[in-house]
């Protein structure tokens, strides 16, 4: 578990969680399951992610991570384009988890799904055309551009509008991974808390420099 937790390579961490979660103690297994599901979700493996979230919620119904798993299971259904199933999932979540911090988001998702019943929702749809003052969610910065491009490819496969942005510092050139644009900081923050924090909790919201 700790080998995967401190692994800097996302693919390597994913393989370690996938191979070892079932042999962990109960104190660590729910955390490992959540992290495994998050990796599956960002890789676009929505069916597997949904199944892993469900395993977490069923095995550890009293875990503080169970609400997250139940809500993210509905998100996976939305990402798969299974709108009717997603609606049923969200309704059940709201009814059964009234005190959950995710209820407000679930209600918003349900309203969105009801307004567009025939349109599959990508896993992380960003709202914006060209903006004069655009905000982005930065997920990390790499010294090797190939690593940044690989991460962007996975994000795009999961439905995110992602890109690589070159950033120059005094002694190095870094390649940042951005999701966006968003029309204002509050919109970016809200989107990040809901869609990015589960798999990249160290994100930051940045404003694109004006030309």
Provide a brief overview of the structure.
With 211 residues, this protein is of the alpha+beta class. It has helices at 2-5, 10-20, 26-42, 46-59, 66-80, 83-96, 103-115, 145-157, 185-196; strands at 135-142, 162-168, 173-182, 204-207.
Question: Could you walk me through the main structural features you see in this protein, from its secondary elements to its overall organization?
Answer:
The structure is a single chain. With 211 residues, the chain is of the alpha+beta class. The protein folds into 2 domains: 2-115, Serine Threonine Protein Phosphatase 5, Tetratricopeptide repeat (Alpha Horseshoe); 135-207, Alpha-Beta Plaits (2-Layer Sandwich), CATH 3.30.70.1070. The chain has helices at residues 2-5, 10-20, 26-42, 46-59, 66-80, 83-96, 103-115, 145-157, 185-196; strands at 135-142, 162-168, 173-182, 204-207. Strand 2 (162-168) and strand 3 (173-182) form a beta hairpin. The longest helix has 17 residues, at 26-42.
CATH-assigned fold name of the largest domain = Serine Threonine Protein Phosphatase 5, Tetratricopeptide repeat
CATH class value of the largest domain? Mainly Alpha
Question: How many structural domains?
Answer: 2
Strand content: 5-15%
Shape: globular
Secondary-structure content class: alpha+beta
Measured between the Cα atoms of the first and last residue, the distance is 45 Å
Spatial strand arrangement across the major sheet:
2-3-1-4
Spans where pLDDT lies below 50 across 5 or more residues:
117-131
Oligomer: single chain
Tell me about the biggest sheet?
4 strands, antiparallel
By CATH's scheme, which homologous superfamily of the largest domain applies? Answer: Tetratricopeptide repeat domain
The level of helicity is: 40-55%
Just name the CATH architecture of the largest domain: Alpha Horseshoe
């Amino acid at each position: 578990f700790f080998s995967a937790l401190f692994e800097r390579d996302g693919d390597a961490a994913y393989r370690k969680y996938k191979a070892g979660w079932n042999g962990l103690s109960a104190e660590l297994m729910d955390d490992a399951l959540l992290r495994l599901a998050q990796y599956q979700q960002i890789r676009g493996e929505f069916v597997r992610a949904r199944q892993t979230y469900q395993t977490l919620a069923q095995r550890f119904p009293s875990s503080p991570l169970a609400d997250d798993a139940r809500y993210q299971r509905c998100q996976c259904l939305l990402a798969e384009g299974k709108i009717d199933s997603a609606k049923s999932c969200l309704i059940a979540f709201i009814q059964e988890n009234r005190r959950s911090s995710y209820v407000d988001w679930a209600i918003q998702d349900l309203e969105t799904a009801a307004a567009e019943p025939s349109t599959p929702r990508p896993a992380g749809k960003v709202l914006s055309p060209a903006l004069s003052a655009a905000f982005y969610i930065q997920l990390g910065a790499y010294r090797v551009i190939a690593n940044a491009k690989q991460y962007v490819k996975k994000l795009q496969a999961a439905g995110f509008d992602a890109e690589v942005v070159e950033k120059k510092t005094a002694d190095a050139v870094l390649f940042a991974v951005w999701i966006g644009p968003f029309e204002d900081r509050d919109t970016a923050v809200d989107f990040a808390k809901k869609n990015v924090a589960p798999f990249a909790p160290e994100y930051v919201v940045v404003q694109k420099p004006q030309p």
